[in-house]
Amino acid sequence: MKVHYECASCFLRQAREALDLATEDEDLKMQITEKTNKILCSQFKEGAVANQIGTEIHRSIKRETGNLDPYHDLRGKSDEIAMQFLPRVEKILEKDKSLKNYLKAAIAGNVLDFGALGLESDIEGLVMSTVEKDLAIDHSGELGVELKIAKNVLYLADNVGEIVFDKLLIKKLHEYDVEVTVALKKYPILNDACMKEALDVGLDEVARLITTGTDSIGVIDHDLSLDFKNDFKNSDLVIAKGLGNYEGLGEMDLGDKPVFCLLNAKCQPIARDIGVKINNNVVLKLN
Fold this sequence. Notes:
2 domains
């Protein structure tokens, strides 16, 4: 996805929050903020790709502060929130075991995103309201059709905490007799899920686990490992969670491979790009 005008202020807000999490050195924060502004001045222009700029900013913060995981403590908080609401979500799924309902539950997990929403957001209050909302764009029927003919599915994970709800959906996918591979980040960035967090919630019990080979926000084609690219190429169907993956996949040549994005449109640029209202939930087929 190309940047929208609001993305500039969002990049600065994210950078400030990441800096406050990464270091207490005020002088260092000023120096890194100057570098962040230089990145924006040189790269933020019409036609620039949103998740590529965001990735460079967050890598710069990690490199300059020496803190390779500024969001470490929030990872634990996300897990706590997810586990707190898991029994309530499971009760909802007991009443309606349709694929659509499991997709909505997975999208509810997508709300566990301090990077997009900010550190002061009422994350807990948003989870249940999200799972109860209908889909503004609903391509779940088309996804069901593709699942019936697919043999293997590549599932692009997004945030820590969120993967607790992804596990529920992946179990549902097995009813279609497909093999599922989940792709995680190799190194921490924002509160994106890595291999450790996936193992902590037992995601390896329901899927084969791999990494993208990098720490990019979402997927960036030239950044991905050859192993991941092979898995992507050989998959029959791709299911991608979250904003970063939506932003990145839109810039890749997907060919005729069916790719579905599951997300909550947590910011106005994403909502505008998709054609929905902010905070709408979507199951969107990209091609």
